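Hey,
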Amino acid sequence: MAITRPAPTGTDTHEPTCDAAPEPQATPTTTPTATPAARSGSESRSPLVLTMVLLTLVLLQGPIRGALNAPVMQSWMTVFVAVLVQALPFLVLGVLLSAAIAVFVPPAFFARALPSRPALAVPVAGMAGAMLPGCECASVPVAGALVRRGVTPAAALAFLLSAPAINPIVLTATAVAFPRNPEMVVGRFVASLLVSCVMGWLWQRLGRTDWLRTPQRSHYEGPSKGAAFWNSVRHDVMHAGGFLVVGAMAAATLKAVAPASWLRTAAENPLVAILALAVLAVLLSICSEADAFVAASLTQFSLTAKLAFLVVGPMIDLKLFAMQAGTFGRGFALRFAPATFVLAITGAVLTGAVLL
């Protein structure tokens, strides 16, 4: 008994000394000393940069004031501020509603509401976009969630194209932007719904399963409903708000800087005007809640060309192409985007010839 008890105590006293020696050398000594230095360096640089920027503005206030007082800059600022002030309330409202729908309405609801036959599910999904406010930033992940929950891809793609273009917020914004042309609201609704249904039927007929990658979980599916909602709001405001500013700047530049002869030449040729505004919609990537105000500011162009701008933009632009490639795969986006672009222009031209 006396021999057996010292043995474990001896082993206990030797083992901790061997285990305790490497631990303080490996972990705590290196990491805490590096991060405070990095933080202090970044914190010390930011006030310096801000001070240098303010100092530069103070030193150059004379030339800056002179440049802002120029007639060209005053015209530019007028158009820029007007577009932002008119579009911002619709953008915020659309972002809030789209986030609420994406987070609090379960995707299984759409699966139960759609008909089982794909040919009938496509127009029903297209019309569902008229009742569900949301911009294109929200329609892509919602469509991905529908595909992931078993909805036929043709119906999900019809919803993806129609929801940003014919929802109540977008149509109301279009009516406010074109108070003297109410036919623009009807034309936008008809052309966008027609293109979305045709694209859905084309995918049902010609699409292949290996072209469409099954989407992963989206950022709307967070750990809690409240966190997912505010994450969605922040995400859409940053993206849509940034593109709105870029679009307002581009519209103001075209209005104030571009020679009137160039715009007049492009506007006088109907085909060139339609193609020019369609390409401009792709490049500007403006949120659908705000694009009507940018289109209304381009007074040189015809209503049909503006309708092409309003139909193409919510269906395919640079940010949408990136989002579609990230959600459904690059192979899908490379096939889907060109077909959508051509059909959107065709639908706008046919609708404009009848209604405008």
